[in-house]
Amino acid sequence: MTKTELVEYVAENAGLTKADAARALDAVLAGVQKGLKKEGKVALVGFGTFSAKKRAARDGVNPLTGKPLHVPAKTVASFKAGAKLKDALN
Question: Could you give the angle at the alpha carbon of 18 between the alpha carbons of 43 and 11, nearest 5°?
Answer without folding.
Answer: 60
